[in-house]
Amino acid sequence: MKRPRILISGYYGFGNAGDEAMLTAILGALYEREPNAVVTVISGNPARTRETHGVQAISRLAMPRILREVSRCDLLISGGGSLLQDVTSKRSLYYYLGIIRLALWCKKPVFLYAQGIGPLFRPAARNTVRDVLNRTQAITVRDKGSQELLTELGVTTPPITVTADAVLAMHPGDPDIGRMLMRRYGISGIAPKIGVSVREWRGNGQYKQKLAQACDELQHRTDGQIIFVPMQYPEDKVAAEDIASAMKKPAVVLDEAYTTAELMGIIGALDVLIGIRLHALIFAALMGVPSVGISYDPKVDRFLESVGEKAIATIDTVDVDALAELTLKRLQQGISDTERKQVAILRSRSEATADYALRLLGREKHNDSTHR
Q1: Quick one: which of 76, 69, 74 has its CA closest to 101?
Q2: Domain identity same for 124 and 186
Q3: Radius of gyration of the chain (CA)
Q4: Bridge-partner residues for 292, per DSSP?
Q5: Is 372 contained in some domain?
Q6: Does pLDDT of 219 surpass 60?
Q7: DSSP secondary structure letters along 24-88
Q8: 243, 211 in Cβ contact below 8 A?
Q9: Fewest C-beta in 10 Å: which of 303, 316, 330, 354?
Q10: Is the same domain home to 148 and 182?
C-alpha cells in the first residue's frame, strides 16, 4: 500500500513552546494511527523542526518547495493553534489561508486540526476566511467559541466538529525532571513554588507592575519561591525580567529554551501557576497543578471555561489584591474534581482529532467510541 504523504502547516519552528507541543501531539497521534505516514512540516526553522521532531521540514518562505510538497501530498493539515486571526498579524492570516488555497487549487483535501478561530475584526478578513474554509473538506476547532464564530461568518459547507487543543492528548510529563532542572537555579525544599508565565503585550507595562506587587504579596504571605517560566524563549524571559526587577524580593527567571517534556515537568513540579500563556495553563491542567489565568485573548477564556474555571482578569484589568487572594486559594485547595473530570473529557476529544483527519485518507481507527 502506498505510504500516505501528509503536509502540516502551522506556526512551527519559532520557539513557541505551546505550538511545538501541539506539533509533538499531532505527530504522535498521526503516527500512532498511521505509522507509515510520510509527514512534512512547513517551518520557520526547518533544521530545528527536523532535529526536535524527527520529521521532514521545509522553509515557510520557500514557495517553490511548498508548491512541490503540496502537489505531492495526500492531505494538508492546517493547525493547530490560532492561525486564523487578525490581531497579531494580518499578513500571517493571509499566509495560512494562502497555503490552504494552494492545496485546494491542487485538488488536495484540507483538514483544519483543532484550530482556535479568531479574533477576526476586519470585514475583508472575515469574508476571506468564510470563502476559503467553505471549500475545505473537514474542520475541527478546539472550543465552542471557535465553532460559533465560524457559524457567524457563514462557514456552512464542511462539517465543523468541536474537539480540543491538540496538546490535551499528550501524556503528562515527569515532575522529577522539572525539579532537577529547577535545582540548577537553587530552587528546592518544601517552600511553595509559585510559577508565573508571562508575555509581552502591546507595550503594556502597567500589568507588569501589578504582577510584581502580587508576587511580592504572595512571597510575603507564603514564604514561597516565585519562578518565571518562559513559554516562548527568549521573548518571555524579557517580560519576566521586567517584572522580577520590580519586585521587592528576589525571584527566579528560568533562562533556558526548554523542550515540551521539560516544560511540562517544570510546571508539574509547581504548587500553583499564574498564567497568561494559554499552553502554560493547559500544561498545568494536564499535570494536575492549580492555576490562575489572566486573559489577553479569547482563547484563554475559552479554555478556562472548558475546564470549569474563568480568568481572574484581562491583562489590562489586573487587580493586585484579587490576584493574590485567588492564587492563595488555589494553592490551598488544589485542582478541583470538576477540572480533573473536564480535562479527561477534553483529552478524549483531543485524541479523536487525528481520527477525523485520517478519515480523509480512509485510514481512521474504527474502534473509537468518541465518534458515536
Answers
A1: 76
A2: no
A3: 21
A4: 274
A5: no
A6: yes
A7: HHHHHHHHHH-TT-EEEEEESSHHHHHHHH-SEEEETT-HHHHHHHHHH-SEEEEEEES-S-SSS
A8: yes
A9: 316
A10: no
pLDDT tens readout for residues 289-344: 999 999 999 999 999 999 999 999 999 999 999 999 999 999 999 999 999 999 99
192: confidence class by pLDDT, cuts 50, 70, 90: very high
pLDDT surpasses 90 at 90: no
Same domain, residue pair 20 and 66: yes
Same domain, 136 and 89: yes
Residue 346 to residue 360: CA distance in whole angstroms: 23
Per residue, the 3-state secondary structure of 111-154, as one string, reads EEEEECCCCCCCHHHHHHHHHHHCCCCEEEECCHHHHHHHHHHC
Q: Which three cell numbers stand for residue 203?
A: 507595550
Q: Give the separation between CA 341 and CA 40, rounded to whole angstroms.
A: 35
218-244 b/e with 16+ CB inside 10 Å = b?
bbeebebbbbbbbbbbeebbebbebbb
The predicted pLDDT at position 370 comes to: 35
